[in-house]
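Sequence only, no structure available. Ideas?
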Amino acid sequence: MLYFSEHLESIINGAIYLVTSAVIIFLGKLVYDLFHRKFKLKEELLKKDNFALGYAVGGYYFGLILALGGILAGPHGYWLDGVIDLLYFGIVSILLFNISSVIQDKIIFSKFSMEKEIIEDENPGTGMIEGGHYIANGLILYGAMSGEGGSLL
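Reply:
I predicted one. C-alpha coordinates follow.
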Protein backbone atom coordinates (compact mmCIF):
# COMPACT_ATOMS: atom_id res chain seq x y z
CA MET A 1 0.00 0.00 0.00
CA LEU A 2 2.88 2.35 0.75
CA TYR A 3 4.35 1.78 -2.73
CA PHE A 4 1.03 2.66 -4.36
CA SER A 5 0.53 5.84 -2.34
CA GLU A 6 4.06 7.02 -3.18
CA HIS A 7 3.38 6.75 -6.91
CA LEU A 8 -0.25 7.86 -6.94
CA GLU A 9 0.63 11.32 -8.28
CA SER A 10 2.56 9.80 -11.20
CA ILE A 11 -0.35 7.48 -12.00
CA ILE A 12 -2.84 10.35 -11.97
CA ASN A 13 -0.58 12.55 -14.12
CA GLY A 14 -0.12 9.70 -16.60
CA ALA A 15 -3.88 9.19 -16.82
CA ILE A 16 -4.42 12.91 -17.42
CA TYR A 17 -1.79 12.93 -20.19
CA LEU A 18 -3.32 9.80 -21.72
CA VAL A 19 -6.81 11.33 -21.86
CA THR A 20 -5.42 14.60 -23.25
CA SER A 21 -3.48 12.70 -25.92
CA ALA A 22 -6.61 10.74 -26.89
CA VAL A 23 -8.52 14.02 -27.29
CA ILE A 24 -5.75 15.41 -29.51
CA ILE A 25 -5.70 12.26 -31.65
CA PHE A 26 -9.48 12.54 -32.05
CA LEU A 27 -9.04 16.20 -33.06
CA GLY A 28 -6.41 15.00 -35.54
CA LYS A 29 -8.96 12.63 -37.05
CA LEU A 30 -11.52 15.42 -37.40
CA VAL A 31 -9.01 17.74 -39.06
CA TYR A 32 -7.82 14.92 -41.35
CA ASP A 33 -11.42 14.37 -42.43
CA LEU A 34 -11.83 18.11 -42.96
CA PHE A 35 -8.76 18.29 -45.23
CA HIS A 36 -9.79 15.13 -47.13
CA ARG A 37 -13.47 15.65 -47.91
CA LYS A 38 -13.47 13.80 -51.23
CA PHE A 39 -13.74 10.41 -49.54
CA LYS A 40 -15.18 8.85 -46.42
CA LEU A 41 -12.46 7.23 -44.34
CA LYS A 42 -14.73 4.60 -42.79
CA GLU A 43 -16.13 3.53 -46.16
CA GLU A 44 -12.72 3.31 -47.85
CA LEU A 45 -11.10 1.34 -45.06
CA LEU A 46 -13.92 -0.96 -43.97
CA LYS A 47 -16.08 -1.49 -47.05
CA LYS A 48 -13.54 -1.19 -49.87
CA ASP A 49 -10.50 -2.60 -47.98
CA ASN A 50 -8.26 0.14 -49.38
CA PHE A 51 -4.80 -0.85 -48.14
CA ALA A 52 -3.19 2.22 -49.73
CA LEU A 53 -5.34 4.51 -47.61
CA GLY A 54 -4.62 2.31 -44.60
CA TYR A 55 -0.88 2.90 -45.04
CA ALA A 56 -1.39 6.65 -45.41
CA VAL A 57 -3.72 7.00 -42.42
CA GLY A 58 -1.59 4.65 -40.30
CA GLY A 59 1.42 6.87 -41.04
CA TYR A 60 -0.63 9.94 -40.12
CA TYR A 61 -1.59 8.55 -36.72
CA PHE A 62 1.87 7.14 -36.01
CA GLY A 63 3.48 10.47 -36.92
CA LEU A 64 1.00 12.28 -34.70
CA ILE A 65 1.83 9.94 -31.83
CA LEU A 66 5.55 10.64 -32.39
CA ALA A 67 4.91 14.39 -32.26
CA LEU A 68 2.89 14.00 -29.05
CA GLY A 69 5.70 11.87 -27.60
CA GLY A 70 8.11 14.72 -28.26
CA ILE A 71 5.87 17.06 -26.33
CA LEU A 72 5.61 14.64 -23.41
CA ALA A 73 9.37 13.97 -23.42
CA GLY A 74 10.11 17.67 -23.15
CA PRO A 75 10.64 19.52 -19.92
CA HIS A 76 7.64 20.79 -17.99
CA GLY A 77 6.97 21.28 -14.33
CA TYR A 78 3.48 21.15 -12.90
CA TRP A 79 1.01 18.75 -14.57
CA LEU A 80 -1.19 21.60 -15.78
CA ASP A 81 1.77 23.06 -17.69
CA GLY A 82 2.22 19.69 -19.38
CA VAL A 83 -1.45 19.52 -20.36
CA ILE A 84 -1.38 23.07 -21.75
CA ASP A 85 1.80 22.25 -23.73
CA LEU A 86 0.22 19.05 -24.98
CA LEU A 87 -2.95 20.82 -26.14
CA TYR A 88 -1.18 23.78 -27.73
CA PHE A 89 1.61 21.91 -29.50
CA GLY A 90 -0.71 19.01 -30.34
CA ILE A 91 -3.02 21.36 -32.25
CA VAL A 92 0.00 22.99 -33.91
CA SER A 93 1.26 19.52 -34.91
CA ILE A 94 -2.09 18.59 -36.41
CA LEU A 95 -2.15 21.79 -38.45
CA LEU A 96 1.46 21.30 -39.60
CA PHE A 97 0.72 17.71 -40.65
CA ASN A 98 -2.22 18.72 -42.78
CA ILE A 99 -0.53 21.79 -44.26
CA SER A 100 2.48 19.64 -45.17
CA SER A 101 0.09 17.22 -46.88
CA VAL A 102 -1.27 20.05 -49.03
CA ILE A 103 2.30 21.15 -49.84
CA GLN A 104 3.18 17.58 -50.76
CA ASP A 105 0.17 17.32 -53.09
CA LYS A 106 0.46 20.74 -54.73
CA ILE A 107 4.23 21.35 -54.91
CA ILE A 108 6.26 18.16 -54.47
CA PHE A 109 3.97 15.86 -56.47
CA SER A 110 2.36 18.54 -58.64
CA LYS A 111 2.23 16.30 -61.73
CA PHE A 112 0.93 13.35 -59.76
CA SER A 113 -2.41 13.11 -57.95
CA MET A 114 -1.74 11.42 -54.62
CA GLU A 115 -5.43 11.30 -53.75
CA LYS A 116 -6.37 9.71 -57.07
CA GLU A 117 -3.65 7.08 -56.73
CA ILE A 118 -4.65 6.24 -53.16
CA ILE A 119 -8.45 6.41 -53.45
CA GLU A 120 -9.28 5.42 -57.04
CA ASP A 121 -6.31 3.25 -58.05
CA GLU A 122 -5.63 1.96 -54.50
CA ASN A 123 -1.89 2.11 -55.15
CA PRO A 124 -0.17 0.83 -51.96
CA GLY A 125 3.17 2.39 -52.93
CA THR A 126 1.62 5.83 -52.96
CA GLY A 127 -0.03 5.13 -49.62
CA MET A 128 3.35 4.16 -48.17
CA ILE A 129 4.91 7.35 -49.53
CA GLU A 130 2.24 9.47 -47.89
CA GLY A 131 2.44 7.46 -44.65
CA GLY A 132 6.23 7.83 -44.65
CA HIS A 133 5.80 11.56 -45.18
CA TYR A 134 3.69 11.79 -42.03
CA ILE A 135 6.10 9.63 -40.02
CA ALA A 136 9.04 11.80 -41.13
CA ASN A 137 7.13 14.92 -40.06
CA GLY A 138 6.37 13.26 -36.72
CA LEU A 139 10.07 12.54 -36.18
CA ILE A 140 10.98 16.13 -37.04
CA LEU A 141 8.35 17.46 -34.63
CA TYR A 142 9.49 14.99 -31.96
CA GLY A 143 13.01 16.37 -32.20
CA ALA A 144 11.83 19.97 -32.27
CA MET A 145 9.53 19.62 -29.27
CA SER A 146 11.35 17.14 -27.07
CA GLY A 147 13.56 19.53 -25.27
CA GLU A 148 16.12 22.20 -25.15
CA GLY A 149 18.67 22.54 -27.91
CA GLY A 150 22.35 22.09 -27.63
CA SER A 151 25.42 22.08 -29.74
CA LEU A 152 25.82 20.02 -32.88
CA LEU A 153 28.33 17.79 -31.15
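Residues 79-108 form the longest helix (30 residues).
Hope that gets you unstuck.
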